[in-house]
Design brief:
By secondary structure, this protein is mainly β. The protein contains no helices and seven strands. The strands form two sheets. Strands 1, 2, 3, 4 and 5 form a five-stranded antiparallel β-sheet that branches. A two-stranded antiparallel sheet has the order 6-7.
Amino acid sequence: MDVTFYVDTDNDGSYEYTDTDTGVTSGTKASTSLSALSTGQNIKWYAVADDGSGTATSSEWTFTTVGKPYSPSNFNPMDGAVDVSLTENLNVDTGHP
C-alpha cells in the first residue's frame, strides 16, 4: 500500500504534496518527516492510502510547533561572582511555553 501525505504549512487552504511512503504493510504505520518548520507554526495535514484497487482519505489534522524557548534566567554562578569553587557547575533555568 502507498500512503501519500499532504500538508498546508501557510494555512492558505492549499495542500502541497509532501511525500509518499511506499510498500506500507497493512496494519503498520506510514510516516514522513517535515523540515523547515518555524516556531509556533500552525500545520494542517491529511493522508491518502492507496492499495492499488482503491483509495481512502483521512480527516484533516492540525498541530502547532513548539514556541521559542524562554530566555535563560537564574544564572549560577551569578555575574560578577567571586570565590567560585574550582569545580562549580554552570546552571540556568529555561523551558518552553
